[in-house]
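Example record for the data management plan.
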Amino acid sequence: MKRIIRKGASLLFLAAALLGFAFSTPLHAENEKPFVVPELTQWNGADGQTVLSHRIVVKGRKSVVKPIADALASDYKALTGKPLTLVSKAAHGDIVLQLKADNGLGDEGYRLEVGDRIVISAATSRGLYWGTRTLLQLSQQYGDNMPRGTAVDVPQYAMRGFMIDVGRKYFPMDYLENLVKIMAYYKMNTLQVHLNDNGFRQYFGDDWDKTPAAFRLECDTYPGLTAKDGSYTKQEFVNLQILGEKYGVEIIPEIDVPAHSLAFTHYKPELGSKEYGMDHLDLGNPQTIPFVEGLLKEYIEGENPVFRGKRVHVGTDEYSNAKKEVVEQFRHFTDHLIRYVEGFGKQAMVWGALTHANGETPVKSENVIMNCWYNGYADPAEMKRQGYQLVSIPDGFVYIVPAAGYYYDYLNCEYLYNSWTPAVIGNQTFEEGDPAILGGMFAVWNDHAGNGISVKDVHHRVFPAMQTLATKCWTAGKTSVPYTVFDERRKNLAEAPGVNELGRLETPVEQAEVMPGTEGMVEEVGYDYTVSFTVDAKAEAKGTVLFESKNAVFYLSDPREGKLGFARDGYLNTFNYRLTEGQKVTLTIEGDNRSTRLLVDGKLREELKPRTLYVVNDRQKADYVYGNPHDARPEVYVEGAKMYYQSTLVFPLRKAGNFKSRITDLSVRHR
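Corresponding structural encoding:
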């Protein structure tokens, strides 16, 4: 057998040969499978590395491949600061992107060959795009020296997704846009946007009128329906879907009815159920179905509908099954909405509820997708038998409800990585690759409206879950990397090219003096930070800003009481500390995902940590609604109901305020 003997090994080989020893493996080292998220499904390592030339060659249909090459070049520069140049003829070290028929790759698979050149090929544009995501992750870890070998990477499940509840908590559109980019970087292809929902009335004086509820989309059919405390215009939502199409992420809009519908009964009270509560539409009211039809029609009719994609989610979950008559009404309502959206050329999605609402009225199942979240509501095996396509989203494994005290605050990623795949739905396990199971999702439900959780807090919970679920939905049970290694190495990857929602700080920030109105070097610094500065205090008006970003404000003098404090997401939090004119002091702010601490001259002055809210009492109410037109302040404790109010801060640094005090010796670093 011909072998290549590397320098330093020849004497060993010769000696072994003379002694009659046989080598069981080649002496040349084959590259181990490189780490990426999700893990490569197949890898054959070769010897050595290929040095990138920083050139790209496009082969095949240029109109399809060139936009992918352009995106790769843009993202590579965002990650590394280096350009990639398009050239016409391939040479050593060049990146070659090509579309070509390959039945083994399916709709999303790709082939990556690192030899004299780095060749990514796929049968579809999406597969080719996913291949560039792998190349970008490799470049983050290996720089210009790509490990040689061949990968054939094909997902085990077609739907790999995340559901975000924007009904109970508003998320700015720029966050949703960044979320699309993050999902794409990890080959997650489905974002379900839950557009309406409501809080729980036991926190709001047991009064439906005071309980917050929101529908987040611009609406012309029912003027005044759109939420006042945060919403999306139709064009913004269209643009989000266009962005998703560019990044390979399908946006599935969800309008949730007939439960979770307080936003609609606030608008039209006569539609509310007197028996089951105002968050339920009255299924016996002849106005209910026409109202919902009118709402859906606004977004799905016409040649260029607001809901551009092929799928629309119509909710249908958690309605009472206490009476047979109501069960049959619910089943009729569900069937009617499925057929209604299909009439506009859309595929319907529903939440699983048809075991809970078992009855005689037929509900269409052919070509209908069901989110299976709780087997008591929809038995997955029975739903498969009836003909539904299933999405595995079991609440006991993949539901995040931030700071609620039930479900998960952070997912148990180690368990999911080691033990879960989309084939596991609650206590039922299907065969991997069962054609009835389209894939898997995880979800964030913001049940506790008013608990102080910020967008940054939610994202801190979402990101590790995203990387974990991306792996398990792509590779299923074929992971080969131990969880401890996965967990450590995943943290070294970017969220996405040009995205830094976590506020990671590459190098510490040091500034001798901060001048009023100046721009900072970074937008913000994320959790586990220390920000320290010296203040030579002057008299400051209430509302004087020290630093601000697009997401938060840190006050030298808060707008209400003139204390040190901060605001984000409509929540105002203050320390029981005021600066006085002529005082010179060094202040340190320490922040993590649980609390925010103030140190004065190195000594802990106050820690704002999670508070339990119980009772109607001004002292115990969270004072957070400054500047927020929708006061969703928790008001009442009833047995079994309590709320854990959070006072966290991702520290803003983009711009200094117009303060009079002198700020010196600024130091910003991660702990």
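Summary line stored alongside the record: Residues 455-475 form the longest helix (21 residues).
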